[in-house]
Design a protein that fits this description.
The chain is 0% helix and 57% strand. By secondary structure, the chain is mainly β. The strands form two sheets. Strands 2, 4, 5, 6, 9, 10 and 11 form a seven-stranded mixed β-sheet that branches. Strands 1-3-8-7 form a four-stranded antiparallel β-sheet, with no helix packed on it.
Length: 115
């Protein structure tokens, strides 16, 4: 089992920035992928960004150039730096951990961007 604890999020005006972090603990093996999904009201959950233990990253097109995902493997922690936030970024953001067998999810944190 893997437990994920998220922190960060909140309310910000359009154009502002927020940081999210997610710490994993439990049965963590060396090779895994961590990242963030988000789900806005009435929409399906979408992958925002991911990063492997080797540092390979992937972003949804809508956040490229604005969001940066990073990780600290020693701390089993993934981060999401969100710049130039827009109202359409408003959603619940979920951290995830994938070890090629199972996907684990964080509890979700609300990000609200006001116009």
């Amino acid at each position: 089992q893997v437990q994920l604890v998220e922190s960060g999020g909140g309310l910000v005006q359009a154009g502002g920035s927020l940081n999210l972090s997610c710490a994993a603990s439990g049965s963590i093996f060396s090779s895994n992928t961590m990242g963030w999904f988000r789900q806005a009201p009435g929409k399906t959950r979408e992958l925002v960004a991911s990063i492997t233990t080797g540092g390979n990253t992937n972003y949804v097109d809508s956040v490229k150039g604005r969001f940066t995902v990073s990780r600290d493997n020693a701390k089993n922690t993934v981060y999401l730096r969100m710049n130039s936030l827009q109202p359409e970024d408003t959603a619940v953001y979920y951290c995830y951990f994938w070890n090629r067998i199972t996907t684990y999810w964080g509890q979700g944190t609300q990000v609200t961007v006001s116009s």
